[in-house]
């Protein structure tokens, strides 16, 4: 599995533990969240969290998008990694919702990833990536 990172900080070498294990440990800094687990349980622990890895067991399972949005909307600023069945067609939307690193099960061509991230010069909604939507560019 090759990881794609869009962060400037050093990658965390610590392995991610399960959500239950994280909540029981006081020294863990990385957690892996499976599809359907309640990420709101992590909110009180943002101060010690450096990495949240969210599992995408199948590309059509969108619960990871919701988990990422909940984390970012509640102030999580650490690394947010999408892991598993991550397709190049999803990278732009995952970036918009707040993912900043990816560990796809199948390798992705970096050139194709870059092209997909730059495919649309204007965006229409506000999102976790803080891109300025086109309506705001037009109307201030």
UniProtKB/TrEMBL annotation:
Pfam families: DUF934. It comes from the Bacteria. InterPro entries: UCP030820 (IPR008318). This is DUF934 domain-containing protein. It comes from Sphingomonas tabacisoli.
């Amino acid at each position: 599995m090759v990881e794609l990172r869009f962060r400037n900080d050093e990658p965390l070498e610590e392995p991610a533990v399960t959500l239950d294990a994280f909540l029981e440990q006081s020294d863990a800094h990385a957690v892996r969240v499976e599809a359907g687990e309640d990420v709101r349980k992590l909110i009180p622990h943002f101060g010690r969290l450096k990495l949240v890895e969210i599992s995408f067991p199948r590309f059509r399972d969108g619960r990871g998008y919701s988990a990422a949005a909940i984390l970012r909307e509640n102030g999580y600023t650490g690394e947010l990694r999408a892991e598993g069945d991550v397709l190049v067609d999803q990278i732009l939307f995952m970036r918009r919702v707040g993912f900043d690193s990816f560990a796809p099960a199948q390798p992705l061509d970096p050139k194709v990833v870059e092209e997909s991230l730059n495919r649309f010069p204007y965006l229409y909604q506000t999102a976790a990536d803080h891109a300025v939507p086109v309506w705001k560019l037009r109307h201030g």
